User: Fold these one by one.
Assistant:
Number 1:
Amino acid sequence: MTSRITRRRFGQLSGLAAGAALVSPAMRAATAPDIALEIAPYTLEASPKHHFKTVAYNGQIPGPLFRMRQGQKQTVEIRNASSEPEVVHWHGLFLPPEIDGAMEEGTPMIAPGGTVRYSMTPDPVGFRWFHTHTFAGKDLTKAQYGGLHGFVLIEPRDAPGAYDREVFIGLHDWGGHFEGSDDGAMSPVYDVSTINGKMLGFGDPVRVKQGERVMMHVLNSSPTEVHWIALAGHRFQVVALDGNAVPQPKTVEMLRLAPAERVSAIVEMKAPGKWVMGEVRKHIQSAGMGIVVEYAGVQENATWTQPERLIWNYRQFSASNKVLPIGDEATRIELTFDSKFEGHGSEERWRINGKSYPDTEEPALKAGERYRLVMKNESMDDHPMHLHRHTFEVRQVDGGGPEMTGLRKDVVLVAAKSTAEIEFVADHPGRTLFHCHQQDHMDRGFMMVFRYV
Ligand SMILES: [Cu+2]
């Protein structure tokens, strides 16, 4: 315990906002928090031959799973035992900006050696997650590249799920370096890809029994990569996207997850054997992105079957046929995404309406009003756009088709050279960050803040 005392630095009180407080050892001893996080150096062993020196939550990757009840107050204590300032973002929760976990909203950073304690009220119900929200720049071991992430499940007060087992699956990519792409700009590429911190064949298998219905909560915590996941011999009944129940559950061959997206899907275990669940694209599965799903009592090698095509669309889960409610005219906010080439061998500068953060516009929202973000992506890249502290409805993707309803998310992948439209009600006053979840893009200006007036 002495190490805790010597690491404390009283000079770091500045910048602490309401709701956060430095904790004395006496206070800590008096009441144990519901949620305790320690951020500290860690070496990940993805396989005996692949080690990554990084930083982790509570000495594990992925970090811990926190189960919470909706509306039941949680005390949180975060100790930063790393050598860099840190901040923890609660992704998909409706929290005040002081604790949401983005300095752009006003959450204070936790200095090295510092501890913060605050309380939060978990909402909404569903599969959420937490992760670091720092800057990496050219250092592809930092921020989201470093794999600081963990799972949150906010459970309703009643209603047990219609399944026998829950499994949490986290996708990540490691060992990134910049490489020039066709257009001359630099993008990260990776050496190793993992599921729950392990390369295929090196982690514990997911153990199941015949006849079980298994709820798979899959999170893509990759700093920059979209991933496609299949489970050989099985199909996924998708019941929730980004933790929110979909209007039309659908059974699909594979899942597509952009960075920060989550899919919750039920798998019926009715094909006894030993199977690979992993990236559909061979080179990424070969780089490690896979996990074995093993039925009880089966002795054989794990089997993979290669799907021929990548198939996914958001629309199939929405209630496209529903008649839209009358009179919910939303105020349109037009946002054009593009990038500014800054020379061969450089990363581009990302822009929203011609400006990069911190110079981006700060659109004003009125509490209780409905807004439609009309996003025009003029770039050659797909962008996973994330709105903090709110849930939105996906209304249009890929530039057209009938209006979609009922598909509630907090990240939407806006395809290259395409448009997408989302709507949300401004019901959580306070500064609200909106950004591309690709770490290299947000680091290069792809962020803006909405403010309430
Ligand atoms: Cu982007």
Number 2:
Amino acid sequence: MLEELRAEHGDVLVTDAAALEALRSDKSGQRSATPPLAVVEAREIAHVQAALRWASAHGVPVVPRGAGTGLAGGAIAQAGELVISTARMARILQIDEADEFAVVEAGVLNGDLNAALAPHGLWYAPDPASRAISTIGGNIATNAGGLMCVKYGVTREAVLGLTVVLADGRVLTTGHRTVKGVTGYDLTALFVGSEGTLGIVVEATLRLRPLERGGVSTISAAFPDVEAAAHASSAITAAGIRPAALELLDASSLEAIGELLALDLGGRGAQLLIKTDGPGAVAEADAAVAIVRAHGGTAELAVDAEAGERLFVIRRAFHPAMERRGTVLIEDVAVPRSALPAMFAAIARIERAHGIPIPTVAHAGDGNLHPNFVFEPDVADPFAVPERVWAAADELFTECLRLGGTLTGEHGVGLLKRRWLRQELGDDSYELQRGIKRVFDPAGILNPGKVFA
Ligand SMILES: Cc1cc2nc3c(=O)[nH]c(=O)nc-3n(C[C@H](O)[C@H](O)[C@H](O)COP(=O)(O)OP(=O)(O)OC[C@H]3O[C@@H](n4cnc5c(N)ncnc54)[C@H](O)[C@@H]3O)c2cc1C
């Protein structure tokens, strides 16, 4: 069957064993049992169309893939599946200063886009910690969040329109280039966060912002314990302060990062990193420091923007630090900001009850926590999460939902959260969503087995 596709686009069809091996995993720690059939390394929209037309004609399942940095297993492929990678579609097609938008191909790296925008005095706000290594297409498919989403919003708020190749190879354009626009259903928003199950994003029109002209203040605040830090974080947002970033690191994540970066971060109960920006940066920083102190913390103001950035290097080193600790299940729950202290208390309880270390960092200003379950894998199946770890995670998800939270704040459902999806959505919403998937992908070839069980 593949010969037909090779005849049409042999230059982008790869069946090399080493290339296929790499597609068995992403950054979630999961790995498929077998490599996929082939990968189309698309360089233009026509390649994606040809591959999807071929897959539709032959009923071959397709796994869309960007840079493979996903943490939910969404881009993992197995035997019989065709991977369509948009990583090599990496051109910035247009930067419009007057109307503050950019048109980019899906494979542009988030960090590269911002480097190209800076000389124009513009920036693209969603900033996952993986910004240097993840693609805009992957960010859109996962509705990626990041450190500055607390003030500037997640990916959904920054996508004006999309070009998508549908399962049968048709090209669909959605959205608008205007600031406002409410014509018809909002298909752009539907595709954002759809994890490759509705179509393949090939181009995006992105909302830009002028580079922040006011100053930046960065505060490092140490607390005796994580609950005090969580209370301070909730109090800062409840006071109407809008930090550009508000991150929390617990004691064991600080210890792991300290080891990785050879810094002395041990011995602290927890740390908040608070960044304020814009014309009110100094006044907001002063107000945040007062709240930190009122909650038993000590606060230190970075001397300049560079020193502030160095503090955030600590936060961005969390995932690499966890990777060095061994096998990790990276979780991603979100709760209302006022429930942050209760969620941290629940994590401590679950850690003790199950005897599993759960170092946790949080985009605290969003109420979005990343508890990392560190465990010894089973020898018989080293890439599977053992049931005892899932039992602890199940307790954590249940507690999160009880507190009014959600199962995933930014990483997506992928393979890892499928079994809890119905529990959060309820039967009606779950079935309606499966119905929407059938409208876009009647034969069910797009990323089967992901999101929906
Ligand atoms: C060190 C590190 C830090 C991270 N920090 C953050 C963070 O702060 N915030 C955050 O949200 N995430 C974070 N992530 C997770 C990850 O980087 C994001 O989910 C990112 O958006 C994935 O982009 P990608 O290009 O790697 O996509 P992939 O991993 O290749 O794919 C992710 C999903 O998107 C689908 N997909 C990819 N490209 C397309 C396309 N063109 N069309 C349709 N579907 C597509 C795939 O099928 C899959 O379901 C982090 C990961 C790492 C390793």
